[in-house]
Amino acid sequence: MATIYQHGTLELIMSGLYDGTTTFSSLLQYGSTGIGTMNQLDGEVTILNNRIFQTNTDGRTHEITNLDLTTPFTSIHDQSKLYYFLQEKFLDFNSLNQLSQNKQNWHNLPASIQIKGDFSKLKVRVAPKQKKPYPPFIEVTRNQPEFEYKNVSGTLVGDFGPELYSGIMANGWHLHFLSDNYLIGGHVLDFSVHEMIGRVDFFEELNITLPIHNEDFKNHQADVLKLRDAIDLAEK
Q: Which PANTHER family is this protein grouped with (predicted)?
């Protein structure tokens, strides 16, 4: 059965639960490709071909070799037998969203995307490392560094979260980037890619593990009424 494995939920991140609660070594047994963040929300994580990369707030990206480091939120998967092949002359956020809307059989399925191509425009952000008491994520995004690049080759990796799973996954596309030379990365805010190839994989199962031994999680009370608006603001 095709499965996206996810540790933690987006709601926990939005609420400021940034302590790492599982290791990257434990995550790699569930897949080879994914996205996430670090303990204390220290940058952006992109997983590609079983290798884990961290983008820091100075814009630099490096490979994580200490797999005992921890994360509060990461999703990971292998390719699914159910997928849609992408080969487009041009793609950006608007056309990707339009493609999703045109494929009505997508709208309730968790999905992943992987696109390789030449990006004429790329805008990314990187979440800074936080100290306790942790602020809500919407406050973190107000002070996050953003970086813009032109004419960079690389791979776009991410997930599609249906409305059905709001609060568990990000609604819509949640994308990260990793350049071919592994030096550029981050959470994608905007992109334009030409002559790309890729695939959208669909999953029958969404496997969520929770940080049941973390005291902040045990005492956490979600504010679901404010959650959707906060996610929309944080993802833009």
A: ALPHA-ACETOLACTATE DECARBOXYLASE (PTHR35524)
